[in-house]
Specification:
- It is a single chain.
- This protein is globular.
- The chain has 384 residues and is α+β, with helices and mostly antiparallel strands.
- The strands form 4 sheets. Strands 14, 15, 16, 17, 18, 19, 20 and 21 form an 8-stranded antiparallel β-sheet that branches. Strands 1-6-2-3-10-11 form a 6-stranded mixed β-sheet.
- A hairpin with a 2-residue loop joins β4 and β5.
- The longest helix has 18 residues.
- Helices cover 26% and strands 37% of the residues.
Length: 384
């Protein structure tokens, strides 16, 4: 008699969103929309909530493992969403998720090594077990590069993507959730495990280099500050390249015209957060002196995203969900260009759910102005 194989358990995805203002009522509304028997729950929360109350409500309400953080906006069934909480539940007999707290971040290297040992033991005990990680990091910690690098070094065979926890202007500090509490200055790595579900991590950005080149001549990489470009005060040189006065610079200029670093096989946008009174520039990622950057241009954001998602679906056909981490400056640019509705609707049609971040993680890199994520689904023909 021919051997039979067990069918792949299907993956059930439920999405939810609420704008109810109270923490307890908001979490209760989400629970009504999500699967009570979920394998994992992810929440992306406005910083308007009292996070101590929100943490308690999440812990009391959900029996499934939860990964969550604050956000500067969300991506969900309605496209780009602002305020409230966006959530997703993932349910399958062949999916597990373990949220692991990394705190304090100064010990991230040893913490990553410990996680790697645990993961290796679990993989050895379960033949065919495959994993991916979703990394949520305090977006004002300035530790994203170190955390991503430490995890990549320790978990090299486990792909990791994620986003930096954020808040909208005027809200309190960003934080990540773990075990009933929202924590500042920390990170959470949600480790997903499966034997048969298909997944693929991805990253895409839509910028191209222009002919306007600048050299970083004075910078503080640890503090992510550029003091001089081309030997001039950074904001003055940047404004000159755009054809405006330094006093005119604002969020729209920074969102639409990041600095672009050519790394040979890839282009890495380096986002400008703001300028300082001394005309230095605060960056969203680490930069170094001597780097040559160009002022980026973005001729076709919608087309670039369509092409990237088409390529992704060649690797994961008809995914049940895209967990996405989308730079808030991408959203500001799209809003400035009147394209946010189109792009938001495209992501909604593709099943995306996630949040607008202060930066994104992909493998060992902390990047800006990028959409990173993971596509997750059931193999074709399985679960029938």
């Amino acid at each position: 008699m021919a051997a039979t194989t067990s069918p792949t358990p299907p993956l059930l995805v439920r999405r939810a969103h609420t704008t109810l203002p109270g923490a307890a009522s908001a979490v209760a509304a989400l629970a009504e929309q999500l699967d009570p028997a979920a394998s994992a729950v992810l929440l992306f929360c406005s910083g308007d909530y009292a996070l101590d109350q929100l943490g308690v409500a999440i812990e009391r309400t959900f029996s499934a493992p939860v990964a969550a953080c604050t956000s500067a906006g969300q991506v969900g069934a309605g496209g780009f969403e602002r305020g409230g909480i966006t959530a997703v539940s993932l349910s399958s007999a062949d999916l597990r998720m373990r949220p692991c707290l990394l705190s304090p971040l100064a010990l991230c290297q040893s913490q990553a090594a410990s996680l790697a040992r645990e993961q290796a033991e679990r993989a050895a005990a379960t033949p065919g077990l495959r994993s991916f990680g979703v990394l949520l990091v305090d977006g004002l910690s300035l530790w994203e590069e170190y955390v991503a690098s430490a995890l990549y070094e320790a978990l090299g065979n486990v792909p990791v993507v994620g986003g930096s926890a954020a808040v909208r202007q005027g809200q309190l500090s960003p934080a990540v959730y773990h075990a009933g509490k929202f924590v500042e200055g920390a990170a959470v790595l949600a480790l997903f495990e499966t034997q048969s579900l298909v997944f693929e991590t991805f990253a895409t950005q839509h910028f191209e280099p222009s002919e306007r080149k600048l050299v970083i001549t004075l910078a503080d990489p640890d503090e992510r500050i550029v003091y001089e470009l081309n030997g001039e005060p950074a904001a003055s040189a940047y404004a000159k390249a755009l054809g405006v006065a330094p006093s005119e610079l604002g969020p729209r200029h920074f969102a639409c015209n990041p600095l672009l670093l050519n790394m040979g096989d890839q282009l890495l946008p380096r986002a400008i957060r703001s300028q300082n009174p001394d005309l230095s520039l605060n960056m969203a990622g680490a930069v170094e002196e001597g780097l040559v950057v160009s002022i980026a241009r973005s001729p076709d954001p919608l087309g670039a995203l369509e092409r990237a998602l088409e390529q992704l679906e060649l690797r994961v056909p008809e995914p049940e969900v895209l967990l996405v981490f989308d730079c808030v400056l991408r959203r500001i640019e799209l809003e400035a260009r009147g394209m946010d509705q189109q792009v938001g609707q495209l992501m909604a049609r593709k099943g995306a759910v996630g949040f607008n971040s202060y930066g994104e993680q992909v493998g060992p890199l902390h990047v800006n102005h990028t959409l990173t994520g993971v596509a997750l689904g059931t193999p074709r023909g399985a679960g029938a």
